[in-house]
From TrEMBL:
Taxonomic placement: Bacteria, Bacillati, Bacillota, Bacilli, Bacillales
Matching SUPFAM superfamilies: Alpha-L RNA-binding motif (SSF55174), Pseudouridine synthase (SSF55120)
CDD domains: PseudoU_synth_RsuA_like, S4
Pfam family, one: PseudoU_synth_2
Lineage top rank: taxon: Bacteria
Known EC number: 5.4.99.-
Family, similarity comment: Belongs to the pseudouridine synthase RsuA family.
GO biological process, any: enzyme-directed rRNA pseudouridine synthesis
Entry keyword set: Isomerase, RNA-binding
Organism: Bacillus canaveralius
GO MF term set: RNA binding; rRNA pseudouridine synthase activity
GO cellular component: cytosol
Record-linked InterPro entries: PsdUridine_s_RsuA/RluB/E/F_cat (IPR042092), PsdUridine_synth_cat_dom_sf (IPR020103), PsdUridine_synth_RsuA/RluA (IPR006145), PsdUridine_synth_RsuA/RluB/E/F (IPR000748), PsdUridine_synth_RsuA/RluB_CS (IPR018496), RsuA_PseudoU_synthase (IPR050343), S4_RNA-bd (IPR002942), S4_RNA-bd_sf (IPR036986)
RNA-binding S4 domain ranges (all copies): 2-65
Protein name: Pseudouridine synthase
Length: 241
């Protein structure tokens, strides 16, 4: 279910704020009845009208995107930098990313126009596994890697336990390649975790999200999720709550 004003805005009738005004003014009907409360939620089966005009909702679409570095995880940017939706020029639906990856982080990102699905995956109680490959400055000692596994104190609280695996170490370049698996989605979390142990991230890539991988894709490429994959993600998210 989605908030009524969001459905109206997403259908292109008005901005979210203007949609709220239309509701308060009594210009919106749900299943033939005028609605004046902003907290109302509707399902895809509910009939929504604005000033007597039916709101046509888009068919839901779900994409897996291999986000390159140097791209913003947004639909627009006030600094005119490249955004993820620039790679979806042939898609008519108004899609947006589920969560985000930093400007300098590459890897697996999901996009959709299904607000209920996006909210389900981003819910704080959702513990879907996210696997990253990190290139660090210097070689972290075993005890420092163990501290990441146990959970480390950051400014917004202690992180949940993680799984950490050293993949390689380059003495000449004084850098290490480490795989880390987390279940949280805090802002810049992986980068902050490694900064906290004194080994800043040089390069970061999200390799896996739940059971989804980047297999078969190059940076900047897209594929649509199968109906079975969408169902699996729903089940995975619901089982974690």
């Amino acid at each position: 279910m989605e908030r009524l004003q969001k459905v109206i805005a997403h259908a292109g009738f008005a901005s979210r704020r203007k949609a709220e005004e239309l509701i308060l003014e009594g210009k919106v009907k749900v299943n033939g009845k005028i609605v004046k409360e902003l907290g109302v939620k509707v399902t895809p089966n509910d009939k929504v009208e604005v000033n007597g005009i039916p709101v046509e909702r888009e068919e839901p679409v779900y994409f897996l995107f291999y986000k390159p570095r140097g791209v913003i995880s947004s639909v627009s940017d006030d600094k005119n930098r490249k955004v993820v939706t620039d790679y979806f020029s042939g898609i008519e639906q108004r899609i947006y990313p589920i969560g985000r990856l930093d400007y300098d982080t590459s890897g697996l990102l999901l996009l959709t126009n299904d607000g209920e699905f996006a909210n389900m995956l981003m819910h704080p109680s959702n513990e879907i596994e996210k696997v990253y490959v990190v290139k660090t400055k210097g070689m972290p000692a075993k005890e420092k890697l163990r501290s990441l596994e146990r959970g480390i104190r950051l400014e917004d609280g202690k992180t949940a336990p993680a799984t950490v695996k050293l993949l390689s170490f380059d003495k000449r370049k004084n850098s290490a390649i480490i795989e880390i698996s987390i279940h949280e989605g805090r802002n810049r979390q992986v980068r902050r975790m490694f900064e906290a142990i004194g080994h800043p991230v040089i390069k970061l890539k999200r390799e896996r999200y739940g059971f989804l991988t980047l297999q078969g894709l190059k940076a900047g490429e897209i594929r649509e999720l199968t109906a079975h994959e969408v169902k699996q993600l729903r089940v995975l998210a619901q089982n974690k709550k």
